[in-house]
Specification:
With 316 residues, the chain is of the alpha/beta class. It has one domain: Arginase, Chain A (3-Layer(aba) Sandwich), CATH 3.40.800.10. It contains 9 helices and 12 strands. Helix 1 crosses helix 9 and helix 8 packs parallel to helix 9.
Length: 316
């Protein structure tokens, strides 16, 4: 079969093993770079956000391994002394002559990762990336509860005739029969939310939770609203975080979520039900300051894996 991914010229994420043959993948956690989803135009194929997967690889190259360093965000080593198999599946292939190829390849790659019973952690790329990723969950066990961290609502129906672009991921997710409740956390400012899009989200009964509600009431109040026993997919747009935490974004908006709030959310979800996947998107590496954004992203991935290990996700 034709390859879906290629190996990066940077070191593997977190010093993990390589696994480009997705048909024989043996992994507990599978990292996948998706440089672009469904671009609005050809220049986006070379945008700065397409470089984010490799920027994160470069940032994690000098870190101590997950089974060696004590992480105080977690309370021990990330892997907790257990034989967890971490695999970097490379970057999804992008064909400049076919704007939809990356999206199709991403969906196919995630399907193979899920078939291997690994936990996908996807690094984008723009926020159209979750659309093909979520489509791959249509044959899994039970509905997916979608947890979005974002400054923007992302309910645009189409833009320039494109329905699967980065302004539309929540609208497209709402149309997938296997996606259930949708929690949109950190929404603020103007961004991509026209009145008709807010109305569409409310008609779907999406739970729109502005950043200021989180600041006033705490992240635990959000966790209390999310039904227990669910299968949670987390999509984290870097601009959902406060710019002091993740400055490397195209549209920074003050008042975003903090790193401790994300830690509370992820650790809470891991024990409340099961996190079945996560993506981190919209990182713009050239706008980073002292590597703050990629350091925060790597820390969030550590928190997720550490929480999943301690919740017993990888017991065979």
């Amino acid at each position: 079969m034709a390859a879906l991914t290629r190996k990066s010229d940077r070191p593997n994420l977190f010093g993990s093993a390589s696994g480009l043959d997705l048909d024989s993948l043996e992994a507990d956690v599978a990292f996948l770079g998706v440089p672009v989803g469904s671009p609005y135009s050809e220049p986006e194929l070379a945008s700065d956000q397409t470089k984010a997967p490799d920027a994160l690889r470069a940032a994690t190259a000098g870190l101590m391994s997950m089974d060696e360093a004590f992480d105080f965000d977690i309370g021990g080593t990330v892997l907790d002394g257990r034989p967890i198999r971490l695999v970097d599946c490379g970057n999804v292939l992008v064909d400049p002559a076919d704007l939809g190829a990356s999206s199709r390849n991403a969906e196919a790659a995630v399907r193979k990762i899920l078939k291997a019973r690994a936990l996908p952690i996807v690094i984008g790329g723009d926020h159209s990336v979750p659309i093909p990723v979520l489509r791959a969950y249509d044959d899994q066990d039970g509905p997916v509860t979608l947890i979005q961290i974002d400054a923007h609502l992302d309910w645009r129906n189409e833009l320039h005739g494109i329905r699967d672009g980065y302004s539309s991921p929540m609208r497209r997710a709402s149309e997938m029969p296997h996606v259930g409740e949708l929690f949109q956390i950190g929404i603020r400012g103007q961004g991509s939310a026209r009145p008709e899009e807010v109305a569409a989200a409310r008609a779907y009964q999406a739970h729109i939770i502005p950043a200021y509600e989180v600041h006033d009431r705490g992240m635990q109040s959000v966790l209390d609203r999310i039904p227990p026993g669910g299968r949670y997919y987390v999509t984290l747009d870097a601009d959902g975080m406060d710019p002091s935490v993740m400055p490397a974004v195209a549209f920074p908006t003050p008042g975003g979520l903090t790193y401790p709030q994300i830690r509370t959310l992820i650790q809470g979800l891991a024990t409340k039900g099961r996190i079945v996947g996560m993506d981190i998107v919209e990182i713009t590496p050239s706008r980073d300051f002292n590597d703050l954004t990629v350091i925060a992203a790597s820390g969030i991935i550590n928190i997720l894996i550490g929480a999943a290990v301690r919740a017993g996700y990888f017991q065979g």
